Each structure stands twice: as C-alpha cells, then as structure tokens.
Amino acid sequence: MKNIVILISGGGSNMAAIVRAAQQGDWAQQYGARVAAVISNKADAKGLQFAQEHGIATAVLDHKAFASREDFDAALAQQIDTHQPHLVVLAGFMRILTPGFVAHYAGRLLNIHPSLLPAFPGLHTHQRALDAGCKFAGCTVHQVTQELDVGPILEQAVVPVLPGDTADTLAARVLTQEHIIYPRAVLGFIKNKS
Ligand code: GAR
Description:
194 residues; alpha/beta; 7 helices
C-alpha cells in the first residue's frame, strides 16, 4: 500500500479535499494508495477531527515542546516514518522545514502555496497580490526542495482578482481551486511513481 501522510496546522480543508478524493475515488482499490495519517503541530487544529471522523490515524506533535527546529523535525520525521510513507503532503503546515527533513523526503514531499509561484513566495500572498495590482491570482502545487516555496511545479490554477476584493475574499476564491488541484496532483504522483 502506498501510504500518504498529510501534515496540517489548522483548518485542514486541503487535507479534507484529498481525503474525500481518496475515499470517493477508491484510491485503495484503484491505485493501492491511502491516506494513512494526519499529523498536526497544533493540538487545536480543526482538521484533526475531520480526519478522525474519516477513520484516519492522527497525531499531534507540538513544536513548542522542542528545544530547536532540528529536534522538532527529527521527532516529526520519526512519527511520519512509522507510517512508511510513499508521499508526504504539506497542507497548510505552517512550519519552515530544516534541510535535513527536506533531504530525508526528497522526491516524495509536496506543498501547496496560495500564489502563482514563482510570484509571492512566503506569507501574506493575497494582500501582496492585491497591493501589486495583479489582475489574476492563484495557487501552486510543487515539489519541496531546500529553498522555501521553490521547487518543480506540478499543478497551478488561476482565478481573477475582482474589483473590491480583500485578502479574505481573494483567499476564499483561491482556496476553492486549491481543493481541486491538490487532490489531482497527489493522484498524479501516486499514479506516476511505483
Ligand atoms: C491554504 O490556503 C494553503 O495554500 C496555505 O494555507 C492554507 C491552509 O488551508 N499554505 C501556505 O500558506 C503555506 N505557506 P487549509 O488548512 O484549510 O488547507
């Protein structure tokens, strides 16, 4: 079985979209793949409940309990590896990862970012797109490499910026597209790699 481990920090709507796609598309039967676990660095992440309700193992690893970023990432990798992951999916996981962690999962670590990369890496992407006067915005699924929000692009989706948009209205429009392209990218990865 190709195990997928998803990391979240909050709402987990992208994680939920992937779980729904996997269950509705019967990825287990069709492709021998399943979401094996959802891990959060925050105990109050809303997505944890959704995962539990869908029969998925969950775990919480509070980064504040660790002395250093390296210690946290080492413990996180240990937790992830108990599920023997084929793929690790960052879905609103709001942590900067150490080089060692990224190297450990090289070629099997995906992220979704709420901008049309390479535009607007980092935080506050929607406000920055508005401030720049962009007519279009969007989201990107990419392979994670050592540099933040840089790495081979797997999927992108574009939305218009509309008159009167705020960062929140634009974020909501982009998020609906994230829920389409992230499950598609994960399935593409599962299909292409044996
Ligand atoms: C999503 O918009 C995702 O693209 C973004 O956080 C949100 C998480 O929502 N990720 C980043 O900004 C990563 N730098 P979700 O928890 O509902 O999936």
